[in-house]
Protein: Icc-related predicted phosphoesterase
Amino acid sequence: MIRIAAVGDVHVDKDVLGRYRPALEELPDRADALLIAGDLTRHGTVEEARCFATEFGGLGVPVVVVLGNHDHQSDLQDAVTGTLTDAGITVLEGSATVLEINGHRLGIAGSKGFGGGFAGACASNFGEREMKNFVGTTEEISARLGEALRSVECDALVALTHYAPVPETLIGEPLEIYPFLGCYQLGQAIDSAPTALALHGHAHHGSERGRTPGGVPVRNVAHPVIKQAYNVYQLLSETVDTELLPA
Ligand SMILES: [Fe+2]
Structure:
């Protein structure tokens, strides 16, 4: 069995330092890796990225992340990625990594993802150049996630995004903003590979559990949704969910 801890939308800045750390110190006893589903920082500055690395790095288990929209706010996403990478944190964007855990290969493919909406209420690649650019971004990012997922050779495959791949985990958010919270193309990408679990964040008022049209379990691990430092999910097991009392 592989146990993965996951959380998203931790929005670290100086004033957040120390808030998660006490619970994280116990993480290596409870999980084999930590996956973080974007919005690591508040405004995507290098200083905030350093604070994030201080809070979530050096745990004794691998830490794998994707960036969120907040991590792009200062247009410094490359510098933020570099700061995290220098701290030993793996940052995925249309790419994948494989971790050796308990004799098993855990494959993780990740991307920030993007908005666009879901079946019956989505933006279409038509009309103004601005709209084509918007939906083109949705399609390109989703296609790259699909390629990354299909490229991994592993025993258990996880998709990690910031934006949501299904509307089910958005329930609780205003319907009007669903197109800004995720897109169906991410779900199609996840279903194009033998994905065992899809994790995302971004929807602070959403719901934890959903499923792609292809049947892949989806979990919204945004911190305001899971209400604890991290949730633990298990792979190569009958069910993905575990009961973990709040730390
Ligand atoms: Fe977000």
Observations:
- The longest strand covers residues 104-111.
- Residues 2-235 form a domain with the Purple Acid Phosphatase; chain A, domain 2 fold (CATH 3.60.21.10).
